[in-house]
Design goal:
Rossmann fold, Alpha-Beta Plaits, 2 domains, five-stranded mixed β-sheet, 21% strand, elongated, disordered N terminus
Length: 301
């Protein structure tokens, strides 16, 4: 069902880059007024040639294009773009009589067709659906496919956001870095398939133990990191200790015994992202040096 137009008047998409291609000036200016309310970054082209050049330069997330133009058509532009990227969202505006072009567009994976004159509700609904798909694609790119956890890139993004919020509202949080002890030996002895199952099992244990507001990511091959909002280092250590005990007692298939080491650092005002991560790494190294299978809170002394 199409959403009410008023719902979109204040719905901004600041992180989505748009390429809009239309050769008819009146139509272009009319639709741009609508787009400018919703997107911070819009690249505008008068034909398919300029549109393809802008695509190559800026790599937009969403393309809105008139299918038939005086110079290079929108269809030709879409065909060339699809050779480079089969994921980018494409919304085509088209006249009712352009059925042959519409059929050809389907072959090039056009996501939405909007008939002219444009129905605003239908157009905004197409934008909404395209944005949802863009978000899904971006989220998928931020996930570790094996363990179904965030990847390192996404964790850096989350950590930066959490630090800004902590500074603004005088909040605190902790991070826990953990490493599977002697994982290389297990891989060498039992094979990488068994090693992958260990990674999946440990990830499942962690995800079942943490809260919905906690963030968990794969940091390296056998290394993971957690961000625990509103939690000081002592309480983070209690969580880490509970995870350590569960993993130590867990009967891994074909591998009799595995343990993990943990390092904990607490965020404080003005501490940089690199400093916080280095503190957690140092605490983890201390756990390794103490004989593994233990939890260490960072202490600068």
């Amino acid at each position: 069902m199409a959403r009410n137009i008023m719902e979109y008047l204040y719905h901004k998409y600041p992180d989505v880059r748009v390429l809009y291609v239309e050769d008819e000036r009146f139509s272009r200016e009319k639709l741009l007024r609508i787009l400018n309310r919703r997107f911070a970054t819009i690249h505008v082209a008068n034909d398919g040639v300029e549109g393809f050049q802008l695509y190559q330069r800026y790599h937009p997330d969403l393309i809105i294009v008139d299918i038939k133009m005086t110079h290079k058509s929108g269809l030709e532009m879409i065909k060339k773009i699809r050779e480079l990227n089969d994921k980018v969202q494409v919304i085509v505006t088209t006249a009712q009589e352009e059925n042959d072009l519409n059929i050809q567009s389907i072959e090039h994976n056009v996501n939405h067709f909007i008939l002219k004159p444009i129905d605003l509700n239908q157009f905004l609904e197409a934008i909404h659906e395209s944005i949802q798909q863009i978000k899904l694609e971006k989220d998928f790119a931020m996930m570790d496919s094996l363990t179904n956890s965030f990847n390192r890139l996404k964790f850096h993004e989350i950590l930066a956001s959490e630090m800004r919020q902590a500074e603004q509202f005088d909040q605190f949080f902790s991070i826990i870095m953990m490493n599977i002890d002697s994982f290389k030996n297990a891989n060498d002895c039992f094979g990488h398939q068994a090693g992958d199952k260990v990674l999946v099992t440990i990830s499942t244990i962690i995800q079942q133990r943490i809260r919905e507001c906690d963030f968990y990511a794969r940091w390296g091959d056998e290394e993971f990191i957690l961000l625990i909002p509103g939690t000081d280092s002592q309480n983070a250590a209690e969580l880490a200790e509970s995870l350590r005990c569960i993993i130590e007692d867990f009967p891994f298939k074909n591998i009799s015994h595995l343990t993990c080491s943990f390092g904990i650092a607490e965020y404080s005002t003005k501490k940089s992202k690199n400093e916080l991560i280095q503190e957690a790494e140092q605490a983890l190294y201390q756990s390794k040096n103490k004989g593994r299978n233990c939890v260490t809170i960072y202490n600068k002394e």
